[in-house]
Amino acid sequence: MITILFAIAAVCWIVLMMIQKYGGELIINPIIGFMVGWLYDGEEEDGVTNHTIQVLLGVICFTIVWETYE
């Protein structure tokens, strides 16, 4: 059980380090109801690509947003 908790903490730490490296944002929102799943969207506009990753776990939605320039 403790190994699983350490693995989850390590994955969260890696995700937070990548958000910091690429200058992204982490947004946490409540969900009315219950959902499980994920979504990725990459939208290109004027040489700038806006990336969005959403992870839905139960009643919480984690959204990670960052931009890359070409």
Q: Can you describe this structure in just a few lines?
A:
This protein has 70 residues and is α+β, with helices and mostly antiparallel strands. Helices cover 29% and strands 61% of the residues.
Describe this structure in words.
- The chain is α+β, with helices and mostly antiparallel strands and 70 residues long.
- The protein has one domain.
- It contains one helix and two strands.
- The chain has a two-stranded antiparallel sheet with strand order 1-2.
- The N and C termini lie far apart (44 Å).
List keywords for this structure.
flat; 2 strands; 70 residues; two-stranded antiparallel sheet; 1 helix; single chain; alpha+beta
How would you sum up the major sheet? 2 strands, antiparallel
Helix share, percent: 25-40%
**Overall geometric form:** flat
Helix-strand pattern: HEE
Strand content: over 45%
Biggest sheet strand order reads 1-2
Number of domains: 1
Mean pLDDT: 90
Runs with pLDDT <50, length 5+? none
Question: How large is the count of helical segments?
Answer: 1
> Care to count the β-strands?
2
**Terminus-to-terminus distance:** 44 Å
From the alpha-carbon coordinates, what is the Rg to the nearest angstrom?
Answer: 14 Å
Structural class: alpha+beta
